[in-house]
Design a protein that fits this description.
Strand content: 15-25%
Low-confidence stretches: 1-17, 356-363, 420-427, 551-565, 674-686
Number of helices: 20
Distance between the termini: 72 Å
Helix content: 40-55%
Bound molecules: flavin mononucleotide
Shape: extended
Radius of gyration: 36 Å
CATH superfamily of the largest domain: Histidine kinase-like ATPase, C-terminal domain
Strand order of the largest sheet: 14-15-13-12-10-17
Length: 686
């Protein structure tokens, strides 16, 4: 706020030689000698401007008792409905009444006492009693000697704007509530639809494995195909609702590009082989082999496009091509020699419910391309199509994936693995199946037994935990929603067990496939997550994967007084990936931050007695240790977190006893900690 100066106006030179005059308030005015506005005339012009201003203006005199208004402009009268004769001589508080915000009035009082300017919004009353929202700017005016001369108030009626803001907010809240209701409804429906579908699909798989005549087999095949379409639609609906509710988070993890493409080819291979189509992929030799990005979403987009390509191609080929684009992005193309897309359908191809063939004879919800478009956009790219009816189509998209340096080149050409549709005989193993649904229990057990596994059953979480405590299993398949004790609680109870029984691999089988479910399962200590309904191939593949990759677990329980820690101090591969992700120069600094933070955190943990507080700290320690490949520390933190969660006092004490030493050993194991300046990469494994 410029101070009001009583000194006489001054004149200086402007750039173009014109005289600049300063008025009594210090405002710059151009006083063009030959112009119509004289110095005296300018004050008249200013008075006119104040009189015609759309905002209310008042001047109050703080040197008179109760700081009365000594001037008000016509806009003030218009806004408030009070003529000047009912305003002058009164304190402006006469505009206040019921609904005027007391805190705001207090703030005004304080500003006046401290001679400070202030801007507030407060409820005022017009002369006719109607309320309005007044955006008031009030400021003191000082004389040349610093003495307080006046207060100026500028009023702006913002009732309409506030009402619009309120309505927008209300509409947004309502939309958010509706969207949440929709998500909750979908989560509920997904469970309700997927659980029985699981039973239907599994029973059909079993039925198709029995001796059927040709007619019966055809009916069962049709039922299975329809079931799969229904399942796809449910999954697509869930995906779309997740994306639209902004709940889908794109992960940033290292992955090998060729592996993703190979997996896509393997998924598409059976359908392509059935139609006699050539299926292949080619990768530009300029591409690095490994990247950071969301491999599973990329896989989903490629499978979706590839699936469509196979669906709409009756002869010829489907090819996936990957190229390094000049701007550093990766270009993906899925090309088919199929029926093509008529121009009139191309504009709406990526919107919901659009189908290349409006008859819908090819099945599907028509949501696939809408999902692809949104997923590609979420990953920072764009998708487009080029098509000639009768000749084929190419879907293109580009993604800004971050390459991992020195990761080599991917293979130039990929083919799907030959498939005869049959699952190879699986290795033997003892599996505990915890599932309360009779039909699902029957189906999963039959599939597993048929594949050669020994299966034992538990009907709820409590039974599962008890069985895991008394028997050695190679794997537990755990339903999440079960009576008495749910799958999360049962897993936590199992993870709190001593020795190898506490480390048995656990895979969740759940029909709840909403965002965060997989994380919840991992947080509870499970090793994986399978969404129901499962088909035979998926179930057996997951079981086999776990049983094949399981570490040689000692059968004898670990000594009771030692924390159960089998992982190495430092997982160099993780550290190496982190180095590649952040850039080699930054790693030493990050390690220093991590080690300092770890020391502080361990000290904090050792000073705590409350389980919930220790659990929070242990959770943080687990996450940080996992990021930096401090595997043993990560496992200890995880064990501590779990022990706190189930209030296992002995377990907590056991981990705490060795935590400080383990942290020190871990810190010493980091390369940078021995030689701080050493920024060379740690030795590669093997
Ligand atoms: C120049 C000036 C303009 C003011 N304009 C308003 C106004 O438009 N509406 C209002 O509620 N209060 C206005 N006030 C604030 C009140 O006059 C008063 O200062 C406030 O209610 C706090 O003091 P009190 O506790 O003595 O009432 C204005 C004050 C000044 C000095």
């Amino acid at each position: 706020m410029s101070r009001l100066k009583r000194s006489s106006p001054t004149t200086t030179e402007a750039g173009g030689g014109l005289p600049i005059r300063r008025d009594v308030a210090g405002n710059a005015m151009l006083h063009a000698g030959g112009g119509a506005i004289t110095a005296a005339g300018l004050e008249g012009v200013l008075a006119l401007a104040i009189a015609s201003a759309p905002t209310g203006m008042v001047v109050a005199d703080p040197n008179l008792p109760d700081c009365p208004i000594v001037f008000c402009n016509p806009a003030f009268s218009k806004i408030t409905g009070y003529p000047p004769e009912e305003v002058l001589g009164r304190n402006c508080r006469f505009l206040q009444g019921p609904g005027t915000e007391k805190d705001t009035v207090r703030a005004l009082r304080r500003a006046i006492a401290e001679r400070q300017p202030i801007t507030v919004e407060l409820t005022n009353h017009r002369r006719d009693g109607r309320r309005f929202v007044n955006e008031l700017r009030m400021a003191p005016v000082f004389g040349a000697g610093g003495e307080l001369l006046a207060y100026v108030g500028i009023q702006h009626d913002v009732t309409a704007r506030k009402r619009a803001e309120k309505e927008t907010l209300k509409a947004r809240r309502e939309a958010e509530r509706a969207s949440k209701e929709k998500s909750d409804f979908l989560a509920f429906m997904s469970h309700e639809v997927r659980t029985p579908l699981h039973g239907v699909m599994g029973t059909l798989s079993l039925l198709l494995d029995t001796t059927l005549d040709a007619e019966q087999r055809a009916y069962a095949e049709t039922a299975r195909r329809c079931g799969l379409t229904l399942l796809e639609t449910v999954n697509e609906l869930l995906d779309l609702s997740r994306i639209e509710a902004g709940k889908l988070v794109i992960s940033q993890e290292p992955f090998a590009l060729a592996e993703v493409v190979k997996e896509v080819l393997d998924v598409l291979a059976p359908a392509a082989a059935e139609k006699g189509l050539d299926l292949s992929a080619s990768l530009d030799h300029l591409l690095p082999a490994r990247f950071i990005g969301d491999a599973s979403r990329l896989r989903q987009v490629l499978i979706n496009l590839g699936d469509n390509a196979v669906k709409f191609t009756h002869r010829g080929s489907v090819e996936i091509r990957l190229a390094a684009l000049p701007d550093g992005r990766i270009g993906f193309a899925v090309t088919d020699t199929g029926i093509g897309i008529p121009p009139r359908l191309r504009a709406t191809l990526f919107s919901r419910f659009a189908q290349a063939e409006p008859t819908g004879e090819q099945g599907g919800s028509g949501l696939g391309l809408a999902i692809c478009k949104r997923l590609v956009a979420l990953m920072g790219g764009q998708i487009a199509v080029d098509s000639t009816p009768g000749r084929g189509s190419t879907f293109f998209f580009d993604l800004p994936l971050t390459p991992l340096p020195e990761s080599g080149s991917p293979p130039a050409r990929l083919q799907p693995a030959p498939t005869n549709g049959e699952h190879p005989p699986a290795a033997h193993g003892r599996i505990l199946l915890a599932e309360d649904g009779k039909a699902n229990q029957l189906v999963a057990a039959a599939i597993l037994r048929k594949a050669g596994y020994t299966v034992e059953l538990a009907r709820d979480g409590a039974e599962a935990a008890a069985a895991a405590e008394s028997g050695d299993y190679d794997l537990i398949l755990m339903d999440v929603r079960m009576p008495l004790m749910d799958g999360f609680a049962a897993t936590r109870a199992i993870r709190a067990l001593q020795g190898s029984r506490g480390r048995v691999p656990i895979i969740a089988m759940t029909a709840a496939a909403m965002p965060g479910d997989a994380e919840k399962c991992l947080d509870a200590g499970m090793d994986g997550h399978l969404a129901k309904p499962l088909d035979r191939i998926q179930l057996l593949a997951a079981v086999e994967r776990v049983l094949e990759s399981r570490p040689r677990r000692p059968r004898a329980p670990a000594p009771a007084d030692e924390p159960v820690i089998a992982a190495p101090l430092l997982d160099r591969e993780t550290l190496e990936e982190l180095r590649a992700a952040v850039g080699p120069g930054r790693l030493p600094r990050l390690i220093t931050v991590f080690t300092q933070e770890t020391q502080e955190r361990v000290q904090r943990i050792l000073g705590l007695s409350d389980h919930a507080a220790i659990e929070d700290e242990a959770h943080g320690l687990k996450a940080a240790a996992a990021t930096f490949g401090a595997a043993a520390l990560r496992d200890a933190a995880k064990a501590l977190e779990e022990a706190c969660r189930v209030h296992d006092e002995n377990g907590v004490r056991r981990v705490l006893a060795g935590l400080s030493v383990l942290a020190e050993r871990t810190i010493a194991a980091f390369p940078g900690q021995r030689a701080q300046q050493d920024a060379r990469p740690p030795a590669k494994r093997g």
